[in-house]
Amino acid sequence: MPASSRTAVIALGGNALSPAGERSTIFDQFRHTRESLGPIVALAKDGWNVCIVHGNGPQVGDELVRNEEARATVEPLPLGVLVAATAGWIGYMIQQSLENALRAAGSDRRVVTVLTQVVVDEHDTALEHPSKFVGHELPAARARELAERGIATARDGNGRLRRVVGSPAPVEIHEEPVIKSLLGAGVIVVACGGGGIPVFRDASGALEGVDCVVDKDLAAAVLAAGIGADLFMILTDVDAVYADWGQPAQRALSRLTIQEVADLDRNKAFGEGSMAPKVRAAAKYVRQTGGRAIITELSRGSNAVAGKAGTEIVPA
Predict the structure, then answer these.
(1) What is the CATH number of domain 12-38+52-122+170-211?
(2) Residue 278 bears catalytic tag
(3) Is 14 a catalytic site residue?
């Protein structure tokens, strides 16, 4: 298929593949992956160049547990390497499932996964203050056990007790030129999996790994701005951004300016660890590019592109 002049970056949450409250097997995760691809297939069929960025919060948390349980038998892997591992196998699930869906829809578009290194500042203070939620909800006894070992936990925006890790801001997408070249050739790209593999540049300019997790929505925003995407869409488990979330008067916000986002965020209107990073990422992209950013629920993606669902972040 000829390359399109329109490019979309789609951020797909790790919870979409492994929902909260569900102890997902790999077969469940394949099933959820296939269920999540409708809006992406629709964009691809409509001729868009598409780059998919996925989260890995539940999956990398599970990998940490597997490493800890097996540490007496095999040497545990560091967190940065586990991010790379989950980016590989989640990318495989998306790549295979999306190619199957495209063939069923009569499209011959190809899909490729690019293991992506995301450069962070090694001195970012976020590395010293864990805030990024990973893994599933923890029983109180397990949380106490982790605390005794110096592993941080906190309650997320839904009140669930979960593990938290350092999450520095993404500065640069190292494989950005490769991703842009593939998109220009009409290939659908899965990139920045789990927010990307966190790395820093040493004094000589060489890349070295960092044990942390980069927020996938912020990484997607940096990538979308870098490749000149026309659309940045965050697909999540909520149909829109809400004012007064969880209150009797809660209401969906169909449109927000970047100034309104800043004002609401200053008043802590968005749940930390849930909607707040998504809204900040969307606003960051719009502020840098003037492009179109949308936040909506998975099944409403196609309607959101048509302006009939979700929350759109606009410059003014």
Answers:
(1) 3.40.1160.10
(2) yes
(3) yes
- Higher pLDDT, residue 20 or 48: 48
Same fold yes or no, 12-38+52-122+170-211 and 230-316: yes
Please state the rounded mean pLDDT for residues 235-258. Answer: 85
Query: Mean pLDDT across the chain, nearest whole number?
Result: 90
Q: Which of 135, 216, 291, 301 is catalytic?
A: 216
pLDDT band at 139 (very low <50, low <70, confident <90, very high): confident
Is residue 56 annotated as a catalytic residue, yes or no? no
Q: What is the mean pLDDT of residues 101-117?
A: 97
The tokens for 169 are: 């801001």
**Candidate list 14, 80, 91, 273, residue with the active-site label:** 14
pLDDT tens across 189-211, in order? Answer: 999 999 999 999 999 999 999 99
**Average confidence (pLDDT) over 177-192:** 97
Fold of 230-316: Carbamate kinase (3.40.1160)
**Domain boundaries defined on the chain:** 12-38+52-122+170-211, 130-165, 230-316
